[in-house]
Amino acid sequence: MATPQRQEWPFPPGAECLAAWKDAISLLVDCSIPEDADPALFDFHGCAWQLPGAFLHVNGGSAMAMSRTQQVIDERPTPHMVLFMVLEGRVTSNYDGLIQEHEPGDIVVVDYSLPYESQTSGFEAIALTFDKASVPVEFQSNTHGLVLTANDPTGAMLGGQIRALAEHIDGLSVHQGQVIVEGILNFAAAAFATPATRERRDKRFLFQRASSAARQGLSDPDFGPDELVAALGVSRSKLFRLFEPHGGVQRWMLAERLRASLQSILRSTPDHKISAIARNHGFRSEAHFSRAFHKRYQISPSSVRTLSRDSLRMATYDTLLRRGDGNGGAIVEAWLAAARA
After folding, report:
1. pLDDT tens, 106-164?
2. Is 261 exposed, middle or buried (0-12, 13-18, 19+ CB in 10 A)?
3. Taking 80 as the threshold, does the pLDDT of residue 204 lie above it?
4. What gap in Å lies between CA 304 and CA 134, rounded to an integer?
5. Could you tell me if 228 and 180 lie in one domain?
6. Distance (Å, rounded) from C-alpha 23 to C-alpha 16?
7. Does the structure show a pLDDT above 90 at 16?
8. What does pLDDT average to over the chain?
9. Domains contained in the chain, number
10. Which one of 67, 204, 222, 288 counts the least CB within 10 Å of its CB?
11. Same-domain pairing of 274 and 247
């Protein structure tokens, strides 16, 4: 009985491992490690099994980033998709404009015919790669970036199947392994096709578009819900439902303006007037800006500028930004709360 051939990653952590890792996935993605990372400590490890219609890979590693841009897609086309299940760590990915952060238990669909970027500070995962044409038609389109979590019953079921395959594949025949893979993919197609799953995905993607459009208009004091409705081509009621968990469109936009202005104050020179920063972020007057700023942060803009002259505090801020534990707005607000305390 022929069994799937197990292939172990043969390189220990270090520069040779980094070079081999880059070469191994160069056909799929451009890859790198953080600028401040030591190549001598780079780690990638795992094992893989080749089946007639799929490739199973159990792997993990240290901090890394991967990118499949449209240019890469055009230059290095591939007909593959992958079910990627996070076991440990966190992975932040951008699926053609839809940004998501994945935690242990998440299972995501990646379609290599569409742009994709990811970065992690370290992870363990199982990846099941397969030919796009081998799965049901409804699974071949509009699934890029769809996620099932461990809290979702279908996600828990699918995750259990993927884990079981990785655990027992050494004891299966090639035929048995392939039959199980086909069963997993058929179940995944049904799981990801549920209206609730697609609704969550569509809502996240619309919010991402809305956020991007709103941020581009934040410097214009006249940019508000009506302009956002026109930019997105959705109804006013749909837009308001989308931002309801964030306190409404106006409140969300005010918060974004204040976060952006806070970052500008920290990075501005002493001769850059607070009034100019206020205007650049959509506030009609410095007085209006100062009142809104103080209400949110319990500190005045000028006092924040004083804090920014403290080299130790700013060194802490720079460290937080390099570490990248969240978006820039969340980081600067967390830093300010700590600095005030």
Report:
1. 999 999 998 899 999 999 999 999 999 999 888 888 788 899 999 999 999 999 999 99
2. buried
3. no
4. 58
5. no
6. 11
7. yes
8. 89
9. 2
10. 222
11. yes
Placement of tokens 């001769």 in the chain: 271
pLDDT category, 95, cuts 50, 70, 90? confident
Same domain, 262 and 119: no
Residues 263 and 280: beta-carbon distance below 8 Å: no
Statement: residue 3 has pLDDT above 80: yes
**3-state secondary structure string, the chain?**
CCCCCEEECCCCCCHHHHHHHHHHCCCCCEEECCCCCCHHHCCEEEEEEEECCEEEEEEEEEEEEEEECHHHHHHCCCCEEEEEEEEEEEEEEEECCEEEEECCCCEEEEECCCCEEEEEEEEEEEEEEEEHHHCCHHHCCCCCCCEECCCCHHHHHHHHHHHHHHHHHHHCCHHHHHHHHHHHHHHHHHHHCCHHHHHHHHHHHHHHHHHHHHHHCCCCCCCCHHHHHHHHCCCHHHHHHHHHHHCCHHHHHHHHHHHHHHHHHHHCCCCCCHHHHHHHCCCCCHHHHHHHHHHHHCCCHHHHHHHHCCHHHHHHHHHHHHHCCCCHHHHHHHHHHHHHC
Least confident of 80-89, 174-183, 206-215, 281-290: 206-215
How far apart CA 21 and CA 29 sit, in angstroms, is 11
Which of 159, 176, 193 lies at the terminal end of a domain, its last residue?
193
Q: Give residue 214's pLDDT.
A: 82
